[in-house]
Write a structure and sequence with these properties.
Elements (H helix, E strand, L loop, with lengths): L1 E2 L5 E2 L2 E4 L2 E5 L6 H7 L7 H4 L6 E5 L2 E4 L5 H11 L17 H15 L8 H9 L50 E7 L21 E4 L28 E2 L3 E3 L3
Parallel strand pairs: 7-9
Antiparallel strand pairs: 1-2, 3-6, 4-5, 6-10, 7-8
Length: 250
């Protein structure tokens, strides 16, 4: 996404075709997943939210190749009288509430003549996993250096698109790390979820699901199936940002 000198906004849209999402994780595999990432200290109960696995048809849509940047957010706040953002212009904006992110989508949509919105949780996972149900956006194995997560040791955001080798099957960037991303989906257990999965996450500061993890998170949050949320009030400290989506062209 970028803005030209005249102030018109352009979005680097990526077309995600209609297809079947292999969503989530089979309940019988959750223990193995927890064991695989035992060094992160994440309990198995947190992964159980991914169960059961299901095949979900996701209609075609468009998603921005990169997360919304400080520069792009700055144009929005200048037009709407909100406080100026902090950070480098080409880094993802963080510290954004779900309400602020949806307001940005409305503002951008008015300028583009499109129904710009946050992606649904299923759309986000479809964009990250593609057709083959891979564990990470780039494939089955985790590799340090393909995403800005805690193992990289940066400790803050980096310019969007810094890891082209970590792109998803559709060429979407930073779907793991850098900034945790709001979706439009409210947290509820998946249909048929194990009885232990909570009906609500009362400890979250917002009920909407986030995906992808941020610079402060470990590699478990780089997993395409991992359901997350905003669990601390300082959204900048935990790296919450967003990217935009829209209906398929035509």
């Amino acid at each position: 996404m970028s803005a030209n000198p005249e102030g018109a906004v352009r979005v680097d849209w990526v077309d995600v075709p209609a297809g079947t999402l292999r969503r989530g994780t089979p309940a019988e595999e959750v223990r193995a997943v927890a064991d695989r990432y035992a060094d992160t200290g994440v309990p198995a109960a947190w992964y159980l939210k991914e169960a059961p696995a299901a095949e979900i048809h996701v209609p075609a849509f468009r998603m921005a190749r990169t997360q919304v940047t400080v520069d792009q957010w700055g144009r929005f706040v200048a037009a709407t009288g909100r406080p100026a953002p902090q950070g480098s212009p080409d880094h993802p904006v963080i510290g954004v509430t779900w309400e602020e992110a949806t307001a940005y989508c409305r503002w951008l949509g008015e300028r583009l003549g499109l129904d710009v919105r946050l992606p649904t949780e299923d759309e986000w996972e479809r964009a990250a996993r593609g057709d083959d149900g891979r564990e990470f956006p780039w494939g089955e194995e985790y590799r340090t250096g393909l995403a800005n997560l805690v193992d990289l040791g940066v400790g803050t955001t980096m310019p969007v698109g810094s890891f082209p080798e970590g792109a998803s099957p559709f060429g979407i960037l930073d779907m793991a790390g850098n900034a945790d991303e709001w979706t439009s989906t409210l947290y509820v257990p998946y249909p048929g979820a194990p009885a232990e999965v909570p009906e609500a996450e009362d400890w979250a500061i917002d009920r909407h699901i986030t995906r992808g993890g941020a610079f402060r998170h470990d590699r478990d949050l780089a997993r395409c199936a991992r359901r997350h949320g905003a669990y601390e009030r300082d959204l900048a400290a935990i790296g919450v940002g967003f990217r935009v989506a829209a209906p398929a062209e035509g």
